[in-house]
């Protein structure tokens, strides 16, 4: 019995409109593969529909982001996509935001907009509800679609106009507590990207008029990245997942932040060539291109002042809350991961993000032994909790192999009449390309959920 039909799909029935030709408009590999593998379809410039296969990956990324936000103590809520212009007039950003903001009028001729970010909405909520230092610290986040009318939407989901973002907002009594909140997000981000199999390096970023050192962009190195970056090689060797992280210990969290920020790492805008050469030995200097997948930022009372988000301290004084905001480009990450994990045949999903773990290939549909063996494996894998896509189509082997490589599931289990006669199936690891003939039982025990 199949326990969850969305986790065990037959290709003969699954909606997977793959493309044989490389789409003309796609300039970078992730965009090409996402279109060819039937993950997304462009609806209009910079606006995409997520087809079933792409949606599964988007949801996996979203879930990892969510779990790590929750672990760090942030709480999830959901704010609207459509916002009132008056909120943005209050923070004085309505005119400044310019053409990137999609402005809309409702039937009463009121100015509305499709939210490009949510500082105004969240600050208004907190201003109306939080009164005392006892209500702090507070960190609230949501995962919601944003719209920015980018001048040049390109590279598929990497620079879209409509995109999916996690944005968190921290509220604290003073700047010192604000730093604790900032550091927690810093470490939560290290964990989040590491769980996706990515090396994302935190790099000092512009802080604007408030100055200080509390703004970092998290950058994944990739040749097609939009930013030029400079960093110390050892940053790529650190491993946060090997550490026991205690979000309740500000000292320990600060220790991790210090470890990651003590080595040189900067984007082009912040780069200091002299310092780079002084601080980093020649054989450890990395100059590369990178993709910004996250951005964290402390900005004090920039929004709490105009929204009058005040709290009473333990001495009875009234002070504006200190805020930070923390974004992750959830939909951009789908493309970013592909940029980091692919070869000439297609995508190579890290296991944590793969839309399915196993691609089961029946080489001779209609052959009793093959059909029966595949049905059996399909059911057992699903019962074990493994996510499996079964290619049960009456297609040539070559087509099945190349599509499976393109889609990039971590494991392929290939069942053919000749192997079955001697009691074996072929197990292929997509990443290493290694193929092995193994008994059915040992294949199952190795790849079950
Ligand atoms: P960029 O410099 O790439 O335009 P940003 O500084 O405008 O990014 P933030 O406002 O900090 O970005 O947004 C948080 C995150 O949202 C970014 O780190 C990025 O991963 C993602 N993001 C921003 N703009 C887009 C976009 N147009 N398409 C997809 N993801 C985006
Ligand atoms: Mg931008």
Structure notes:
By secondary structure, the chain is α+β, with helices and mostly antiparallel strands. The protein has 12 helices and 22 strands. Strand 15 and strand 16 form a beta hairpin. It binds adenosine-5'-triphosphate (ATP) and magnesium ion. Adenosine-5'-triphosphate (ATP) binds next to strand 9, strand 14, strand 17 and helix 8.
Question: Descriptors for this entry?
Answer:
alpha+beta, binds adenosine-5'-triphosphate, 22 strands, six-stranded mixed sheet, 2 domains, single chain, Rossmann fold, 449 residues, binds magnesium ion, nine-stranded mixed sheet, BirA Bifunctional Protein, domain 2
Task: Please count the helical segments.
Answer: 12
* Mean pLDDT over all positions: 96
Which structural class fits the helix and strand makeup?
alpha+beta
Relative helix content:
25-40%
Rounded to the nearest angstrom, the distance between the terminal CA atoms is 16 Å
CATH superfamily of the largest domain: Bira Bifunctional Protein, Domain 2
* Total count of domains: 2
What is CATH's topology name of the largest domain? BirA Bifunctional Protein, domain 2
CATH architecture of the largest domain: 2-Layer Sandwich
The hetero molecules present are: adenosine-5'-triphosphate, magnesium ion
Which percent band covers the strand fraction? 25-35%
Using the CA coordinates, give the radius of gyration.
Answer: 25 Å
The strand count comes to: 22
Q: How does the overall form come out from the CA principal axes?
A: globular
- Uncertain runs with pLDDT below 50, 5 residues or more? none
Q: Mind summarizing the main beta sheet?
A: 9 strands, mixed
CATH class of the largest domain: Alpha Beta
């Amino acid at each position: 019995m199949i326990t969850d039909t969305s986790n065990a799909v037959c290709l003969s029935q699954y909606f997977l409109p793959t493309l044989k030709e490389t789409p003309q408009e796609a300039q970078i590999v992730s965009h090409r593969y996402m279109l060819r593998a039937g993950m997304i379809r462009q609806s209009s410039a910079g606006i995409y529909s997520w087809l079933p296969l792409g949606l599964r990956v988007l949801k996996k990324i979203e879930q990892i982001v969510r779990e790590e936000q929750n672990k760090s103590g942030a709480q999830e809520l959901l704010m609207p996509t459509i916002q009132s212009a008056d909120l943005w007039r209050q923070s004085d950003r309505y005119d400044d935001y310019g053409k990137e903001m999609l402005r809309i009028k409702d039937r009463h001729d009121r100015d509305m907009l499709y939210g490009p970010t949510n500082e105004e909405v969240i600050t208004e909520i907190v201003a109306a509800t939080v009164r005392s230092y006892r209500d702090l610290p507070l960190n609230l986040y949501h995962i919601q679609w944003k719209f920015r009318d980018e001048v040049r939407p390109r590279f598929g989901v990497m620079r879209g106009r409509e995109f999916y973002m996690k944005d968190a907002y921290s509220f604290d009594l003073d700047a010192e507590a604000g730093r604790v909140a900032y550091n927690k997000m810093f470490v939560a981000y290290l964990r989040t990207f590491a769980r996706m199999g990515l090396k994302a390096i935190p790099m000092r970023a512009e802080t604007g008029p408030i100055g200080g050192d509390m703004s970092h962009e998290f950058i994944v190195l990739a040749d097609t990245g939009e930013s030029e970056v400079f960093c110390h090689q050892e940053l790529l060797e650190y491993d946060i997942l090997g550490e026991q992280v205690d979000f309740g210990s500000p000292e320990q969290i600060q220790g991790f932040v210090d470890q990651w920020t003590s080595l040189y790492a900067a984007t082009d805008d912040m780069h200091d060539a002299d310092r780079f050469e002084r601080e980093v030995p020649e054989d450890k200097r990395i100059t590369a291109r990178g993709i910004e997948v996250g951005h964290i930022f402390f900005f004090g009372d920039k929004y709490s002042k105009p929204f009058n988000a005040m709290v009473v301290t333990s001495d009875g004084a009234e002070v504006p809350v200190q805020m930070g905001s923390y974004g992750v480009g959830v939909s951009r990450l789908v493309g970013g991961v592909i940029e980091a994990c692919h070869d000439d045949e297609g995508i190579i999903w890290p296991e944590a993000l793969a839309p399915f773990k196993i691609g089961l290939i029946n080489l001779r549909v209609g052959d009793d032994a093959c059909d029966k063996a595949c049905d059996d494996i399909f059911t057992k894998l699903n019962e074990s909790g493994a996510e499996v896509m079964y290619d049960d189509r009456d297609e040539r082997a070559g087509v099945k192999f190349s599509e499976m490589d393109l889609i990039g599931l971590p494991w392929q289990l290939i069942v053919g009449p000749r192997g079955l006669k001697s009691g074996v199936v072929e197990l292929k690891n997509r990443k290493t390309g290694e193929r092995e003939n193994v008994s059915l039982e040992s294949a199952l025990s190795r790849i079950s959920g």
